[in-house]
């Protein structure tokens, strides 16, 4: 009985598949040795993956100290360290595929998976580099899978300069590499547009945060 029920549920669910990276990734050179790779529509069946992650990830609201005050972090969070079971096998497969594709450039596997849930356009992440760790001093790679409502991922050189904007949509992959975490900053700005929820999964090598 149980088997039949599960089987029929699987039939109606979209199949989740991850497309190839080789030949499908578009590289955007920034300045100072930073780059951004984009692979649109990397994951298909993204509705199903989004629905699973909304439900399975133990999303947490956090508060952080900012200028002597405690403020709400404007997004929900959850992070999976190396060795921790991921909320869906698709993420494990994605991490492996990324590791294979970037093996020569990165020289090490991706390990942790950080997750953000932007509930609507008021949720955001402020300008920052992923510099809690080796990203502060070394070139590295941070790969981001986007699901749900399209949002802008903006980048600007540290110290100021022209802002580059990438629209990241449902199932898209955006990868920041080279010196990007040290010499550029990134943000997902708030938007006044009526946008639905977005999930991002960030794949990082060990010691990069
Ligand atoms: O949600 C995103 O695409 C970016 C998240 C991010 O920059 C971070 O968590 O460090
Ligand atoms: Fe970041």
UniProtKB/TrEMBL annotation:
The lineage of its organism: Bacteria, Bacillati, Actinomycetota, Actinomycetes, Catenulisporales. SUPFAM superfamilies: Clavaminate synthase-like. This is Alpha-ketoglutarate-dependent dioxygenase AlkB. One of its GO terms (molecular function) is dioxygenase activity. Residues 109-207 form the Fe2OG dioxygenase domain. Keywords: Dioxygenase, Oxidoreductase. GO terms for biological process: DNA alkylation repair. It comes from Actinospica durhamensis. InterPro entries: AlkB-like, AlkB-like_sf, ALKBH3, Oxoglu/Fe-dep_dioxygenase_dom. Transmembrane segments: none annotated.
């Amino acid at each position: 009985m149980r088997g039949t029920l599960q089987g029929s549920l699987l039939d109606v669910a979209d199949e989740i598949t991850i497309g190839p990276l080789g030949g499908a990734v578009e590289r955007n050179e920034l300045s100072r040795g930073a780059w951004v790779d984009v692979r649109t529509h990397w994951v298909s069946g993204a509705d199903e993956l989004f629905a699973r992650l909304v439900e399975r990830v133990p999303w947490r609201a956090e508060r952080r100290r900012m200028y002597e005050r405690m403020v709400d972090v404007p997004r929900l969070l959850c992070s999976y360290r190396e060795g921790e079971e991921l909320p869906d096998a698709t993420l494990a497969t994605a991490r492996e595929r990324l590791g294979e594709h970037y093996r020569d450039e990165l020289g090490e596997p991706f390990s942790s998976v950080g997750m953000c849930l932007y509930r609507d356009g008021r949720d955001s992440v402020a300008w920052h580099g992923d510099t809690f760790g080796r990203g502060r001093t070394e070139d590295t790679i941070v790969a981001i899978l986007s699901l749900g409502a399209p949002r802008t991922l903006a980048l600007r050189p540290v110290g100021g300069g022209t802002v580059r904007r990438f629209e990241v949509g449902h199932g898209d992959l955006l990868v920041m590499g080279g010196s990007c975490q040290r010499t550029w900053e990134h943000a997902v700005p708030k938007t006044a547009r009526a946008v639905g929820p977005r999930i991002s999964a960030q794949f990082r090598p060990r010691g990069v945060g």
